[in-house]
User: Which sequence fits this backbone?
């Protein structure tokens, strides 16, 4: 059981929740968050790690209020508890050298911890961040300490701003059309791209098979085998 | 100790307690064994198998509803051969009774699957004639007494394992189906599978699921499932395993009082992986408080 330290709206319908007491995870992993003691909503909601502070043991989530579950999260106050089952999923693996990070909408959230870990693992590497939003930007300032550049696009197509011909590793998380565009661009430039997928899931641990997707090596579970995949593996499943 | 007060025999198999992981909610035990002590469970019913395996349904597969969820997984599974060669032996290492759940698209698939399962060291074969998410199969066998009896009798003829038939709450006359299965030689019955439901995405103006209809489970169905278990348990003499929205020891007790000798927990495990262990603990406490020498004393008291 985690304890909520803060829970505030940082943009329209976008909330940042900081908790302590959740098992520590890493970039690209997620938790099934659930308000304790209620059967409605029943299931946990998969929310990825936005930031981990290993020193204080605190984990930050940034989530969008979409349905009943996330609306209930937004009503939680500091001091209240939340079930944080996890950390689940494979997470991003940190490749050496130049990193290009692409985040779209709420898909921006997991990329902050990724930037942080990439920077910590190699202070000298170049990290370029591209963030796309429909109407309003958030978290863009938080990337600055870890990035050599942060490019913003509001109401446009952020993938169009990315040069896929660099000798770099590309990481993307965002809506499916954005990931498909990134995959297409990466394919024509023969770039290395890892994508973090999102699907409806009930359990988060690989048991319900609600989130499986077609890959080049058979069906895989987004929650357990992913959510991070080499785009070439899941191009038909995005 | 719980092992004494909670123990029972189901189809000749000793269970240390009446709490069984429901098919389709626990894989073959591997995933949850990472986070809970799965050896404490009474039994595990593995993911529903079909003869040649399946990639399952396309599109949206899980969708939450008030105190419940709809699923349209479509029996995604690795096939009976893989189960026999790999998963059955793994499940055996966990400790709880091993139950293989077998579905099918046609009679020959069912029978061949059952024949192959004779090679596996399982305790019980749960005959799934109630999956609502597979076209031209599964549930089609479980809707009418005649077809249910026919497949049950044929499976009994080829299987060396005790056969527990999993019934569909969507059958027009569930009690008649239950009696027919008993008459055809079923060793036990488990019920209920999911209720056929539906969801519509009003914004997109279309059904949420590609199959349009999907299976409803979770606490929302408990009162109906309880009523059905009560009706069936009072209509047959073979053991009944009850399920449908159980989230707590109190819920489990309701099903036992209604006539089930054991219960299965499914959807609640998704919400809380520890739910079944909490239920086992709660049942042990109940026996102590009520001074029962065995929990089975309350079975069918209502």
Assistant:
């Amino acid at each position: 059981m985690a304890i909520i330290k803060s829970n505030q709206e940082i943009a329209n319908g976008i909330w940042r929740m900081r908790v302590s007491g959740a098992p520590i995870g890493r970039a690209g992993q997620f938790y099934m968050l659930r308000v304790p003691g209620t059967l409605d909503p029943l299931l946990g909601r998969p929310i990825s790690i936005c930031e981990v502070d290993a020193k204080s043991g605190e984990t930050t989530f940034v989530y969008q209020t979409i349905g009943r579950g996330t609306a209930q999260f937004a009503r939680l106050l500091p001091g209240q508890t939340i079930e944080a089952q996890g950390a689940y999923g494979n997470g991003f693996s940190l490749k050496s050298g130049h990193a290009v990070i692409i985040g779209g909408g709420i898909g921006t959230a997991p990329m902050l911890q990724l930037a942080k870990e990439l920077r910590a693992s190699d202070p000298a590497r170049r990290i370029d961040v591209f963030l796309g939003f429909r109407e309003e930007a958030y978290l863009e300032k938080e990337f600055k300490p870890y990035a050599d550049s942060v490019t913003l696009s509001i109401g446009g197509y952020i993938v169009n701003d990315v040069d896929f011909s660099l000798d770099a590793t590309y990481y993307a998380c965002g809506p499916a059309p954005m990931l498909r565009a990134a995959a297409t661009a990466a394919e024509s430039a023969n770039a290395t791209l890892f994508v973090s997928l999102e699907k409806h899931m009930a359990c988060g641990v690989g048991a319900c098979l609600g989130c499986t997707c077609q890959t080049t090596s058979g069906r895989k579970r987004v929650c357990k085998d992913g959510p991070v995949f080499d785009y070439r593996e899941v191009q038909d499943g995005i | 100790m719980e092992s004494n007060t909670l123990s029972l025999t189901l189809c000749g198999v000793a269970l240390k307690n009446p709490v069984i992981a429901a098919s389709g909610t626990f894989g073959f035990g591997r995933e949850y064994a990472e986070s809970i002590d799965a050896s404490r469970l009474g039994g595990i019913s593995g993911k529903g198998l079909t003869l040649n395996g399946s990639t399952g349904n396309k599109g949206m597969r899980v969708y939450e509803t008030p105190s419940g969820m709809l699923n349209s997984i479509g029996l995604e599974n690795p096939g009976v051969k893989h189960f026999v060669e790999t998963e059955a032996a793994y499940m055996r290492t966990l400790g709880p009774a091993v139950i293989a759940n077998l579905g099918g698209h046609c009679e020959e698939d069912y029978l061949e699957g059952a024949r192959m399962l004779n090679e596996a060291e399982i305790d019980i074969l749960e005959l799934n004639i109630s999956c609502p998410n597979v076209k031209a199969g599964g549930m089609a066998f479980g809707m009418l007494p005649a077809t249910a009896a026919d497949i049950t009798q044929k499976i009994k003829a080829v299987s060396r394992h005790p056969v527990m038939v999993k019934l569909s709450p969507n059958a027009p006359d569930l009690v008649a189906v239950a009696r027919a299965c008993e008459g055809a030689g079923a060793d036990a019955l488990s019920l209920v599978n999911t209720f056929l439901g539906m969801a519509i995405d009003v914004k997109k103006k279309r059904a949420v699921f590609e199959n349009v209809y999907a299976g409803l489970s979770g606490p929302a169905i408990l009162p109906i499932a309880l009523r059905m278990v009560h009706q069936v348990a009072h209509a047959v003499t073979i053991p009944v395993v009850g399920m449908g929205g159980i989230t707590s020891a109190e819920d489990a007790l309701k099903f036992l009082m209604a006539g089930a000798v054991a219960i299965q927990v499914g959807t609640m495990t998704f919400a809380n992986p520890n739910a079944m262990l909490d239920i086992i603990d709660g049942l042990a406490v109940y026996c102590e408080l009520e001074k029962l020498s065995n929990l089975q004393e309350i079975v069918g008291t209502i």
Remarks:
- DSSP finds ten helices and 16 strands in chain B.
- Chain B touches chain A at residues 24-27, 31-32, 34-35, 47, 55-56, 60-64, 66-69, 71, 73, 76, 218-219, 247, 267, 269-273 (CB under 8 Å).
- The first strand of chain B starts at residue 8 and ends at 10.
- The mean pLDDT of chain B is 95.
